[in-house]
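Inputs:
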Amino acid sequence: MSITENILCSKSHEFLLDNGDNTFTIGLTDYAVEQLGDIVFLELPEVDTEFKKGETFATVESVKAASEIYMPISGKIIEINEDAVNAPEILNEDSYEKGWLVKIEATGDVAAEQSDLLEYEDYKEELE
Amino acid sequence: MTKETFLHDKHVQLGAKMVDFAGWSMPVQYTSIIEEHKTVRENVGLFDVSHMGEVFISGKDSMEFLNKIVPQDIEKLNYEKAVYCQLPNKKGGLIDDLIIYKLGILEYLVICNASRIDEDLNWMVRNSKDFDVQIDNRSHEYSLLAVQGPFADKLLRKMGLTTNQESFTIKPAQISQLKVLISRTGYTGEDGYEILVENRHSEFLWDKILEEGKEFGIKPIGLGARDTLRLEAALHLYGNDLDENTTPVEAGLSWSIPKDKIADYNGKDVITQQLKNGTSKKLVGLKMLDKSIARHEYEVYKNGEKVGIITSGGPSPILGANIALAYVKNDKNICIGSTVQVMIREKLHDAEIVKRPFVEKRNKIKL
């Protein structure tokens, strides 16, 4: 089973994976990574920082530019992907299982906040 | 509407990501900017730079006219030679930077930036009224292909190039039986050539170079790598590092300005005064001391005081570090070896001022 069957995607190209225990994994979609090209720098927040849905929580830099990454739902950072910070190019290989960015504990009304997120197939269709 | 070069279909077929650049749809990358960058440093790369402008200057006063509009001494420019020039306004600020080639006794070719062609032509025409000169914009007739990298010369010789030419020269030549104008110049810091070819032959030549270049590891190279290559070589990009409020002296281009040019030129009083007395700002190279990346318009600080601004910045694939060009206050304590800070997302990051270019240039081929 592909991970993309379980994720929700935002219009700003973040993915949200429900880990089932009120925690979620957040990262960039394959489309986002492909558009960015070679990823050379990643700035992630500190563990325990809280963000509201829609707030900038991280920055990703490709060769050409810096891009902000937004929270798809509100949450508290419980883990960051150190491997991705140390070797941001792994996002280009696989932005889901290897190159995820942070894990969070949801702090808001998840059902309501997810309402504007799309299933992967619908997200792909929107891009066309 | 976005303009397309005659090689547009080739880029699309090769899977390039196309972006808008100065009103042109251009390939920013084919596979990966870093990979393309390394290909040019280690092997050879092919660029479509047909968006650039080609303006032919001819007529009885062509030399005197050019001498009026650039600080460089066009009287001393010999047949088939090229010179890097700037186009200053009356205050010495730069309308564009250019390469001028002498094609014949009263014939010159000016290659200018795609983004500035209208401004350049307007300025040239306005300055031409006292001269017997024809200004002929033939940008729409030619494609410009750049072949850059350590194997560029070998590849073109294999394709029948017989000219013997040093860097900064231009000659009529034949490549794969095509008549072209070929100049040993580029924008990468590597040895290489730029080939001016009639549009109707450009697709044939593009394919042929990629085919013949296979044994040398050739790849098509997009504008993304063109930018990182020129930054490593500390070559200025108009719009980033040069603009109408910056003089060539401030931009670190004094080396290109003859001190003994007799003829008057636009901005001469400001430029000669600055050559003598110095300027309040200067261009420096920065190397970030952590993994952060300085970008265009980020601020530069020293001891908590704002002392400058980044004009270009990004990763250097060859150094494995992040580099930048910045204008800083012309202060003796801000010099090669000193540490400054760059404000990146509200935090200060240390950077060292280092010499330019960031990597050794290998484009000074002498016969």
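DSSP finds five helices and ten strands in chain A. Flag for discussion at group meeting.
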